[in-house]
Write a structure and sequence with these properties.
heterodimer; A: 110 residues; 6-stranded mixed sheet; 5-stranded antiparallel sheet; globular; B: 115 residues; mainly beta; 7-stranded mixed sheet; 4-stranded antiparallel sheet
Chain lengths: 110, 115
């Protein structure tokens, strides 16, 4: 089983739509969770961290369910500029390592 | 502020040749990471350093791969001899314990093609 699993997509949605991505992780000792964004042929960049209580940053909401080892990202009112690959990232236990999912591709259509 | 700098940006070589990828982390960062990204396997951690010391090289695929960090501002990833299956984008990233969320900052990557 992969340490971090994501639906690869692609998710094709119209502008203004709400879209949700899900991710599961296998290491129950993981303490920190993130979503990174990667534009086509660019490097990954931190989008937001994920807190147990859930957190929101503008149109983006991240949630964590430790019992189910499940992380989600919700994007409301999708923009064309949201088109990218979204990487679910889990800190690997007691180390400083980040384990990346293979990413979910989002294409927002005009 | 300069971000993470990688060179070369693109490398095309023939099977059997030695390849050296270079990375300059963000000044003041004490962690440096080397990743490889392919369509099939996504982003894989190869090795990481803390204060120039290799901490975990369990992701290095085989003995053909080696990495060094002779000082806080420079690291190399070497492949010798290279094989077509090494074709990928290689990213270097750096981070600091002082950064919120231990955020990792990635360089632009080196796109390696081995013919």
């Amino acid at each position: 089983r992969k340490e971090v699993e994501q639906d690869p997509g692609p998710f094709n949605v119209p502008e203004g739509a709400t879209v949700a991505f899900n991710c599961t992780y296998s290491n129950s000792a993981s303490q920190s969770f993130f979503w990174y964004r990667q534009d086509c042929r660019k490097e990954p960049k931190l989008l937001m961290s994920v807190y147990s209580s859930g957190n929101e940053d503008g149109r983006f909401t991240a949630q964590l369910n430790r019992a189910s080892q499940y992380i989600s990202l919700l994007i409301r009112d999708s923009k064309l500029s949201d088109s990218a690959t979204y990487l679910c990232v889990v800190e690997g236990g007691a180390t400083n390592k980040l384990i990346f999912g293979t990413g979910t591709l989002l294409a927002v259509q005009p | 502020d300069a971000g993470v700098i990688q060179s070369p940006r693109h490398e095309v070589t023939e099977m059997g040749q030695e390849v050296t990828l270079r990375c300059k982390p963000i000044s003041g960062h004490d962690y440096l990471f080397w990743y490889r990204q392919t369509m099939m396997r996504g982003l894989e951690l190869l090795i990481y350093f803390n204060n120039n010391v290799p901490i975990d090289d369990s992701g290095m695929p085989e003995d053909r791969f080696s990495a060094k960090m002779p000082n806080a501002s420079f690291s190399t990833l070497k492949i010798q001899p290279s094989e077509p299956r090494d074709s990928a984008v290689y990213f270097c990233a750096s981070s600091s314990r002082d950064q919120p969320y231990n955020e990792q900052f990635f360089g632009p990557g080196t796109r390696l093609t081995v013919l």
